[in-house]
Amino acid sequence: MIRLENIQRRYVSDEVETTALRDIDLEVADGEFLAIMGPSGCGKSTLLNTLGTVDRPTAGRYSFGERDLAALSEKELAKFRGATLGFVFQSFNLIDELTIEENVALGLAYRKDTATGAGQAGRRARVAAAMDKVAIAHRARHFPHQLSGGQQQRAAIARAIVGDPQLILADEPTGNLDTANGEQVMNILASLNAEGATIVMVTHSPSHADMAKRRIDMLDGRIVASAMRAI
Ligand code: ADP
Question: Which of 55, 107, 126, 196 is least crowded, fewest Cβ atoms below 10 Å from its Cβ?
Answer without folding.
Answer: 196
